[in-house]
Every structure is written in C-alpha cells, then in structure tokens.
Amino acid sequence: QVQLVESGGGLVQAGGSLRLSCAASGRTSRYYAMGWFRQAPGKEREFVATISWSGGSTYYADSVKGRFTIIRDNAKKAVYLQMNSLISEDTAVYYCAVSYDGPQISRNNYRYWGQGTQVTVSS
C-alpha cells in the first residue's frame, strides 16, 4: 500500500555533510509520523530520528543530536535527513519508515520501510 524509496547516500569524508531523501508513494491512509533508522555491519538496526505529522515534534538519538536534522514535506510525501559533521561511526545503511503511532523510537511501531541507502564516512 505504501512504498518508500531512499536516496542521497554515498561516500563522504569525515567532517562532511550529506542529505538523505525519502519519497513515499501509494496510500498512506491517515496521518503518520516518519523516522530514520540505520544499521551498521554486524549491529542491530538502531533509531536515528523521527518527526510527527505536523513537524512539531522531533526526537533524535543521542549519538546524532546536534549534528543531524530531520525535516518533512507533506506536500511531497517526503522526509529528509540532513547530516552534518559526519564521523566514521555514522557509516551504515539508512532506512526511512512510516509509523501510525506517532513519533516513536522503536522499530516495532513502524509499518512501512524503505530499501535503505548506504552512507560511508571515510577518514
């Protein structure tokens, strides 16, 4: 019913910036929150950031707070992740997702997921 496609990943140097995009298509049915998660090699998928339907509420993982910013554009059914001051620990596959339970930090609250986009930070 809903498809999510991420883009904007790539290889960047430490200290650099990258902007990820996620476009939704299909029927979203109701108001929804959106989030970003990431999964590094050999690690569990972890929460990065989430944003409410209105954009009035945002939450960030401690590891990215102050460096990353989540933004959404409901007219385009899109969510973005602006990543600044990148470090090697940010290297991972980044996934966007849709939640009908408001902005949440748990994977279990997200109904739909994108295929992921690779972000690699070199030193």
If you had to describe this structure to a student in words, what would you say it looks like?
With 123 residues, the protein is mainly beta. The protein is built from no helices and 11 strands. Strands 2, 4, 5, 6, 9, 10 and 11 form a 7-stranded mixed β-sheet that branches. A 4-stranded antiparallel β-sheet has the order 1-3-8-7, with no helix packed on it. A hairpin with a 6-residue loop joins strand 5 (46-51) and strand 6 (58-60). The chain is globular, with a radius of gyration of 13 Å.
Can you give keywords for this protein?
123 residues, mainly beta, 7-stranded mixed beta sheet, 4-stranded antiparallel beta sheet, globular
Net shape:
globular
State the order of secondary-structure elements, H for helix, E for strand.
EEEEEEEEEEE
> What composes the largest sheet?
7 strands, mixed
Relative helix content: under 10%
Q: Total number of β-strand segments?
A: 11
Rg of Cα set:
13 Å
Strand content: over 45%
Judged by helices, strands and strand pairing, the structural class is mainly beta
First-residue to last-residue Cα separation = 41 Å
Number of helices: 0
Mean pLDDT: 96
Low-confidence runs of at least 5 consecutive residues: none
